[in-house]
UniProtKB/TrEMBL annotation:
SMART domains: IG, IGc2. SUPFAM superfamilies: Immunoglobulin. The chain crosses the membrane at residues 6-24, 29-51. The keyword Membrane applies. The keyword Signal applies. Coiled coil: none annotated. It comes from Cyprinus carpio. Keywords: Disulfide bond, Glycoprotein, Immunoglobulin domain, Membrane, Signal, Transmembrane, Transmembrane helix. This is Ig-like domain-containing protein. Residues 161-248, 255-329 form the Ig-like domain.
Amino acid sequence: MQFYSFFLSFFLSFFLSFFLSFFLSFFPFFFLSFFLSFFLSFFLSFFLSFFDIGQYLGEDLQVSGPANGAVGGSVVFAPDNPPSTSIDTVQWNFGSTPILTAQSDSTLIASAYRDRVSFDINTLALELRNLRLDDSGTYRLTVIPSAGDLLTGETSLQVFENITNVRLIGPEESLIEGESSANITSEGTGNITSVQWMKDISPLSPSNSIIFSSDYRSVSSSPVQRSDSGEYKCTYRNPVSYETAKISLIITYGPEDVSIKGQDVVDSGVRVSLSCSANSEPSASFSWKFNGADTDVTTDTFTIDQTDFTHSGDYICTASNSVTKRNASQKHALLVKEIITFCLIQPEV
């Protein structure tokens, strides 16, 4: 192989010298420049002949990678282009540490790997089992053919701990819109290479009110808004595993937008219902006043079974939120029309 490498290098260098000399021919000293170029080409070819340039001719082994593995798992290293010629010796090394040496009739495995590796002499594949973190590094394959130059190839392995025990820690106290701050912190074990946050079904992104820590392990919102209510998910990932934890936040607010639905004017003797509603989280409780006086009605509906003139007046509904300690009211005026009965008396004749 060294002879062919030398010949190829010399041949290419000779033509480079010729073309260089041709261009220099337009200047004086044509023959001097030609012989100087020829001498340099010969020296370069002679020098390169002592080195293995098989990698430039595509003859070195190509081992796929880099590879990722999980602690306790397994991985297989194999060349994509195993040599087609007969092989005298095969070696697999981890860095400078021998793993195994194999020949056609025997395989010698280092004691540190004896229970963890398998080798296929036909494909030169090495299987490494029960992976540990300290298995991360460079793996080198060396093949000595029965005839020809030594062939080499290498790849790398990165071993990761599986991600486990991911959980989210959120606020325990009630969160009030416009007043409270919320912080969600994530925890987990394993080699974590990326962290992803989701709110409901959408990615959670930084904003004026949403702030992430520098390591992306926690997120905060201040002050909270009702739009912050929802399910938060945090996913820890690495190349071999992932795990997701969830937590829900409920932002309390209100009551607001109190309204009363019902008739304004009714005849005497009919049934009337006034219905009160409010926008609130949690749902509001209700109380009613009639003409400034408290009533015993504590539901969202005030019902009068049979009206008379005494039911005319102002009805006030008050909505209250037990968490925000806020309340809001709305007034509704009701007029009950009396039916006047006329009696016609005729004089006696």
